[in-house]
Amino acid sequence: MLRGCYISWFSQTLVLLYVIIKKPTASAKNPIMKNSPVSLVDIIRAHERLKGIATRTPLTEHASLNEEFGAQIFLKREDLQIVRSYKIRGAYNKMVSLSTEEKERGIICASAGNHAQGVAYSCNKLGIQGQIFMPATTTRQKIDKVKMFGKDYVEVILHGDAYDDSYNAARLYEKEHLLTFIHPFDDHSVIAGQGTVGIEILDDFNGPLDYLFIPIGGGGLCCGVGTYVKQISPHTKVIGIEPAGAPAMKRSLELGVNTTLTEMDGFVDGAAVKRVGDLNFRMAADVLDDIILVPEGRICSWILKLYNGEAIVVEPAGVLSIAALDYYKEEIKGKTVCCIVSGGNNDIIRMAEIKERSQLFEGLKHYFIIRLAQRPGALKEFISKALGPDDDICHFEYTKKNNRSTGPIVLGLEFQKKTDCEAVMKRMDTMDMSYQRINDDTDLFQFLV
C-alpha cells in the first residue's frame, strides 16, 4: 500500500512540475478552461499511462507542402500508430483506468473500424474480454484487423447496415450483460487520451506553432488536443475540419445546441457522425477558432496526391487536415503549421471510388444522357465531330429501340483539362444534339452510373 501511495504521489509531483515548466497562460480570447471536464493534469497522466503502448509518432516537415503554400508545414503522422490511427490513445487510457471489477466483467464497444482496432489492441494488452459490434457492411479487411489485434480477447459481432445500428445494439447488450461501454469520443478518459497527441506536438516543436489543423468526427481528438494546446500555447489557432457531407459539429455550434444530422454522406467513415459527443460539444467552443467544411471530392484529390507524390497512404478522415489548407492559403503564408494525419486505414477496394470522386470534383469526368439518331453512322459521326483527340470514353450504355427516331446513350467522358468538357458541349450544341449532363443530379446519377 505504501509503495502504491508513493508512486501516486511521485506521479502527481511530476505532473505538477511538467505544468509549471510549460507555464500555461491565458489570453483574452482563450482563457484557462477552469470548468472543462478534462484538465491538463488528466492529459498528462494519460501521457504517462500510454508510454510503451502508443507509438510516439513522428512530426515531419513536408517540403512540397511548404513550397505550395509558402509556409512551414509539419505533419503529425498518427497514421503510423500501431493500429494506424490515434484511437489507441483514448481506448487504452479509458480501459486501463477501469476498476478491477469492471475489467473482470468485460467491455463492449461499437465501431466501423479505427476505434474497434484500438479497443481490440487494448483488450489484448490488458487481458480484458471485449465484445465489439460492427456494421455488417464493414469490409473484411477491417474485421480481420480487429481480430488480429484482439486475438482471443475479443468477439466481433456484426449487426445492422450502419454504425448507428451497431451502436444501439451494443448499448442494449451492455445493459443486459452488465458490461462497460467504451465510447469512441464522448468520454472524459477517451478525450484525455486523445489529447496526448497535443503533448507530443508541442514537445517536438522548437519554436512557436501558429496554426494547428485537426480533423473532427465525434470531437474526441479536437477537444483533447485543443484543451492542451490552448493552455500551453494560447496564441496557436486551432482549426477543426469536418467533411462537408457530415457537418455535425459546425451545425451544432452555429445553432447553440448539440444537433443530430438528419442526412449524412458516410464516405469519410472515420469522421462522418450524425451527432458529436455531448462532452465534446460543450468543449469545442472553447478550443476551436474555426471549423472548415471540406467537400468529399477534394478529400479524394488529396488522397491521390499524397499517394502518387509521396507514397503516403491515408484514409479519407486522415487527410482532412491537409485538404483544409486550401481554404487558409492566405492566412498561413510565412507561418508555422501542423496538420494531424489522423489515420491510414484505407482499404484498397475503395481506390476506384476515390479516383472517380476526385475526377468529378475536379471537373475531369462528366456523365451525359445523349439522344442519338438511330441510323447507321450516327455514333461514328458523334465521336468524330463532338469529341476531342484526348477525350476518353469511360462509360457507354446504348440499346437500339425499334420504331423510334432517336435512342438515349448514357455516356461517361474523362478529360485532361476542366475546360475540355465545355468544348465538347459547345460542339454538341453546334451539331444541334439533345443532351443532359447528369453529374449534379444526385438521384439520376446514382441510378444510372
Note down, in words, how this protein is organized.
The protein is of the alpha/beta class and 449 residues long. The protein folds into 3 domains: 28-85 and 189-354, Rossmann fold (3-Layer(aba) Sandwich), CATH 3.40.50.1100; 89-187, 3-Layer(aba) Sandwich (Rossmann fold), CATH 3.40.50.1100; 363-448, Alpha-Beta Plaits (2-Layer Sandwich). The chain has 19 helices and 14 strands. The strands form 3 sheets. A 6-stranded mixed sheet has the order 1-2-10-7-8-9, sandwiched between helices. The longest helix is centred in the N-terminal third of the chain and has 21 residues, at 2-22. The radius of gyration is 25 Å and the shape is globular. The protein starts with a helix and ends with a helix.
Q: Which features characterize this protein?
A:
six-stranded mixed β-sheet, 449 residues, 19 helices, Rossmann fold, Alpha-Beta Plaits, 17% strand
